[in-house]
Write a structure and sequence with these properties.
mainly alpha
């Protein structure tokens, strides 16, 4: 324990010495140049670098990747969940696709708002890569859980298939 304290003390003394030398050197530079050192703000510095001609010329503007269905699923195993749904329902469309969406919303792994519905619809078209129906056939439909037998069948199937993913939730 005594050795650690001595090591810490000597390290601290070294840092103090370096700091003193740096501040003395900084004072000399300020005296010679007539310019006072400024505090460094990382965010401003990054923004200034991004505005330079060199940065603009050599930085690549990568096109944004188009979102897939899994990108809307807020679960650590979103790719696996998407894959299971795709295997079980490769050609699902319309209101039946809405049942899957509602199931995931109830499991609190999918959140959609009015502004993201179009984006979600386009991601579903890319993910399923087939005719999934029109936007109104999916989002213009009000789910009636008690009246539609397909709703209970699909949600029960999803509950069985995805049970392991939602035990913790």
């Amino acid at each position: 324990m005594k050795y650690l304290f001595e090591y810490h003390s000597s390290t601290q003394a070294l840092f103090n010495c370096q700091n003193l030398n740096f501040n003395n050197h900084l004072a000399e530079v300020e005296k010679i140049t007539g310019h006072k050192a400024q505090n460094f703000n990382a965010q401003i510095f990054i923004q200034e670098v991004k505005e330079t001609l060199v940065f603009k010329r050599f930085s690549t503007n990568l096109p944004q990747r188009e979102k897939l269905f899994r990108d809307f699923i807020s679960h650590e195993k979103n790719s696996e969940i998407e894959s299971i749904i795709l295997k079980k329902y490769p050609t699902i469309k319309g209101k039946k696709l809405r049942y899957i969406i509602d199931f995931l919303i109830k499991k609190e792994v999918l959140t959609i708002t009015y502004g993201t519905q179009t984006e979600l619809y386009n991601s579903l078209k890319r993910t399923f890569n087939c005719n999934i129906g029109t936007y109104p056939s999916i989002f213009g439909y009000t789910v009636n859980e008690t009246k539609d037998s397909d709703y209970s069948r699909i949600t029960n199937e999803l509950e069985m298939l995805l049970n392991d993913y939602f035990k913790v939730l």
